[in-house]
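> example.struct
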């Protein structure tokens, strides 16, 4: 059996790993901008589908289907983003005799449509009022009806694409076009959804797996550390929830997905404030942050996706899901750590921390790689597991200090600062976390980055002197303490 992975970057490498477990032959596609990308080498075969922009390559249904046929593939896995939640693409695959690794077209017509999903969810959950808008006049009318502040976001996709906040009619006029354009670039549709905006909530989501007969959950994830509504740090379990709250949110998520007769992997997203949960949307695909759920449950989510799509169904039951410990994911982006402005360019060196026990790196980056300007800025995901939350935080701090990327800026200094912020350490934060940080100056930021870059060398030097990795790390704590003092005085 052969599978076409209709995506790019780290998610391709991730899917390939699960394919090897199931003796599925992985194939790929790449755009003209990605022709030298590392992820291609992990595919058994790959086809150049041309173009540079996503609209000319990864969003072209005809090119993806033709590639699958040319390579003799039986299945198509869309990954996340691009065509992953596109009901039309799912239907086209079915029509062309290809198995779409994701929800069925009927389910996607509901779950990937924000208005329809909200109507279905409202039968069993509390929802925030909202409607679709195809032009600015409609957006202004919806906002006037439901009251400000409101949130504009892409109606045909998730991931925070197209998301803007408006506190007045004047704000809508300012952000409508940019929201619409971002939606079109990301999902091939410029239809927007206007929703009542809940200020300073926590963002909590529940991982779901379903086949034609069973729907189960794999627990929740906390995703409240965000910048411009893009997730930066995720953790599981959420430090905000009591046992009773956890049962409430997972039961509600299951009820919503049962109403949709959901099949394959998906995530139900909620806003949480003052003890109440509000349904936000369903992400009908594998999530960027799925690794932390895999770390605490030991369940390969992509493997389950492939089993469900191939007709074998779920190989686990709800009673088999036993979460243990704590996991955190930091999204490493090719962005300036102070301004978060994305950067394209050549990576001079890429030296991730060792993937020892409790440390996982999902990336398709390599030294010498030229980061294109056409796609998302995510270049690596660092996932750390610990027996407790404090253990996971300490392991993440250590791993971040050993991560070395040069040639382009990255968000690593930001992540170290965030993990040393007292609000994060205590688990007392919400979606305003990043906005309320007091940024250190560019000079201090560069100094902090320099300290971080030198730590791996110092640890390696001590290891060559005969110290164990653990001993070398402990002796290097002085440098990290200096960084802690610097970032704490500026960010807290």
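> example.seq
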């Amino acid at each position: 059996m052969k599978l076409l992975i209709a995506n790019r970057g780290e998610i391709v490498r991730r899917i390939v790993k699960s394919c090897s477990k199931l003796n599925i032959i992985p194939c790929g596609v790449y755009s003209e901008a990605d022709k030298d990308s590392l992820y291609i080498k992990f595919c058994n075969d790959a086809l150049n589908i041309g173009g540079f922009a996503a609209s000319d390559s990864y969003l072209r249904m005809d090119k993806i289907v033709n590639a699958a046929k040319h390579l003799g593939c039986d299945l198509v896995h869309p990954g996340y983003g691009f065509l992953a939640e596109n009901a039309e693409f799912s239907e086209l695959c079915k029509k062309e005799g290809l198995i779409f690794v994701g929800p069925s077209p009927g389910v996607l017509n509901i779950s990937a449509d924000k208005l329809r999903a909200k109507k279905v969810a409202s039968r069993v959950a509390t929802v925030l009022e909202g409607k679709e808008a195809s032009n600015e006049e409609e957006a202004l009318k919806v906002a006037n009806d439901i009251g400000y502040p409101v949130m504009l976001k892409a109606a045909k996709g998730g991931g925070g694409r197209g998301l803007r906040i408006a506190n007045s009619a004047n704000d809508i006029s300012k952000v409508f076009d940019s929201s619409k354009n971002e939606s079109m670039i990301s999902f091939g549709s410029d239809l927007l959804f206007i929703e009542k905006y809940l200020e300073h909530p926590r963002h909590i989501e529940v991982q779901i797996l379903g086949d034609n007969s069973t729907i189960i959950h794999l627990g929740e994830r906390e995703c409240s550390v965000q910048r411009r509504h893009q997730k930066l740090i995720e953790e599981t379990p959420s430090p905000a929830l009591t046992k009773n709250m956890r049962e409430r949110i997972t039961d509600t998520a299951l009820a919503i997905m049962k109403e949709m007769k959901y099949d394959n992997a998906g995530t139900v997203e909620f806003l949480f404030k003052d003890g109440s949960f509000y349904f936000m949307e369903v992400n009908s695909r594998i999530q960027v942050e799925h690794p932390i759920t895999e770390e605490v449950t030991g369940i390969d989510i992509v493997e389950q996706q492939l089993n469900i799509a191939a007709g074998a169904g779920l190989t686990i039951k709800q009673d088999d899901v036993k979460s243990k410990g704590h996991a955190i994911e930091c999204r490493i982006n090719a962005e300036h750590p102070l301004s978060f402005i994305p950067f394209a360019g050549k990576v001079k060196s890429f030296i991730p921390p060792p993937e020892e026990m409790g440390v996982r790196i999902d990336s398709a980056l390599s030294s010498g790689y030229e980061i294109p300007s056409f796609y998302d800025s995510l270049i690596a995901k660092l996932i750390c597991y610990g027996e407790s939350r404090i253990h996971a935080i300490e392991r993440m701090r250590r791993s971040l200090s050993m991560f070395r990327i040069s040639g382009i800026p990255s968000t690593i200094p930001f992540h170290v600062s965030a993990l040393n912020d007292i609000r994060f350490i205590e688990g007392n934060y919400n979606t305003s976390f990043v906005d309320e940080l007091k940024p250190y100056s560019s000079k201090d930021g560069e100094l902090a980055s320099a300290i971080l870059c030198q730590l791996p060398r110092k640890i390696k030097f001590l290891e060559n002197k005969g110290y164990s990795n653990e001993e070398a790390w402990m002796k290097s704590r002085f440098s990290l303490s200096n960084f802690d003092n610097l970032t704490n005085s500026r960010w807290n």
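> remarks
The first helix runs from residue 10 to 21.
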